[in-house]
Write a structure and sequence with these properties.
This protein is α/β, with parallel strands linked by helices and about 375 residues long. The protein has helices at about 20-30, 70-75, 75-80, 110-115, 125-145, 155-165, 190-195, 215-220, 235-250, 265-270, 285-295, 305-310, 325-335, 345, 350-365; strands spanning about 5-10, 35-45, 60, 85-90, 105, 150, 170-175, 200-205, 230-235, 255-260, 275-280, 300, 315-320. It has 2 domains: about 5-180 and about 350-365, Rossmann fold, CATH 3.40.50.2000; about 180-345, Rossmann fold (3-Layer(aba) Sandwich). It has 15 helices and 13 strands.
Length: about 375
């Protein structure tokens, strides 16, 4: 049987969200890849040494072309053509539109299209509008030319069909994600007990505008409690805007920012929080929610379609646009202190199963 050459775009492997998806996908694929496949993993230069594989069928390739860049469009296809791939997997909604090899794509969500306000960009308005226009072109091309589209939920599939048309319905395959394997078996950072408040509510994620953390902070100002609100996320431009809002609302002693958490830190927060609060307006899957469930942390979140699909009745809902409702549900949790056993919920989701189902799609696409 001739060797099949599969490419996987892993340039975002160190990012949050997509990076977790990539690291788990590669980990489980490496354990179960057919012996007749060779897998080329495309990485930024700075990730070549930190990413390692035990399976010799996995080969690292440098592809230092940033996503949403001109270099990605001009030089990335040339790099891919040199490896004579039978199938390429683009794992993000950014790909070189001139690439004419056979490929499949993962589209995690449609947030950049659905919440195109410009607030999530540090670019000036004209540059942002040009990049957003080009993003539309790239997404249309990706939908049209992908042999298969993978989404993390049925909700994202529904959005894609609504935006791009029913003709793409059959090629879209929802595959659920799971609990990050990197969190399993690691001890919590117990040292944090000395510096963190005894009682706290928790937010974990980015601070992009669609994450709606500003409304969460505003809602918390209306809640009378000695418990604190701890916001855990990356130290970036948007974290600075959260700091400014906290200061402006005089919440510096009630709302705490914890930046660039390590895995052991995350476990501490999940295990010790009163509840995880997720006020997002848009999500593809909601990894922190499933991780919270794994560690038995109660969940309070936005009443949006994707959370209804993934969590069902296993969370307390609020209207993410209504500050008063967010405050009301937070107060409810603080008074009732609900217990939560997330085992049944978590059993539905698995990155190992996701990798198997993704590999089955590779096999199907190779025969097309």
């Amino acid at each position: 049987m001739p060797m099949k050459r599969i490419g996987i775009d892993a340039r975002l492997i160190r990012q949050t969200g997509v990076g977790v998806y990539l690291r788990n996908l590669l980990f489980f694929l490496e354990k179960d890849i057919p012996p007749s496949w060779m897998v080329f993993v495309y990485l930024l230069k700075e990730d070549l040494h930190s990413v390692t594989f035990q399976n010799r069928q996995f080969v690292k390739r440098e592809a230092s072309y940033r996503w949403h860049s001109l270099a990605e469009q001009v030089f990335y296809p040339r790099r891919l053509y040199r490896d004579k791939l039978d199938l390429m997997h683009f794992t993000y909604f950014s790909y070189p539109i001139s690439y004419r090899g056979k490929f499949i794509s993962t589209i995690h969500d449609l947030t950049p299209l659905l919440f195109a306000t410009g607030k999530a960009s540090t670019k000036n308005k004209l540059v942002y509008q040009l990049k957003h226009f080009f993003l539309k072109i790239v997404l249309h091309s990706q939908m049209r030319n992908s042999r298969t589209i993978i989404t993390p939920t049925k909700s994202v599939k529904k959005q894609l069909v609504q935006v791009f048309g029913k003709r793409y319905q059959r090629k879209i395959h929802p595959i659920y994600e799971g609990v990050n394997k990197e969190l399993i078996g690691i001890r919590e950072n117990a040292v944090l007990k000395k510096s963190m408040p005894k009682e706290f509510l928790l937010y974990i994620g980015n601070f992009y505008p669609h994450k709606n953390v500003e409304r969460l902070i505003s809602a918390f100002t209306k809640v009378k409690t000695s418990a604190k609100l701890v916001l855990v996320g990356p130290d970036d431009f948007f974290a600075k805007s959260m700091t400014q809002l906290i200061n402006r609302l005089d919440q510096i002693h009630r709302v705490l920012l914890f930046k660039n958490p390590k895995l052991a830190d995350l476990i501490f927060f999940y295990k010790n929080a009163i509840a995880l609060i997720n006020p997002t307006l848009s999500e593809g899957f909601g990894l922190p929610m499933i991780e919270a469930a794994y560690f038995g942390c109660p969940i309070v979140g936005s009443d949006i379609e994707v959370f209804d699909e993934v969590l069902g009745s296993s969370f307390i809902r609020f209207d993410p646009y209504d500050i008063s409702d967010i405050a009301k549900k937070i107060s409810h949790v603080l008074v009732r202190r609900p217990r939560f056993d997330g085992k049944r919920l978590v059993e539905k989701y698995s990155f190992e199963k996701m990798a198997r189902e993704t590999m089955a799609l590779y096999q199907k696409a190779l025969k097309m």
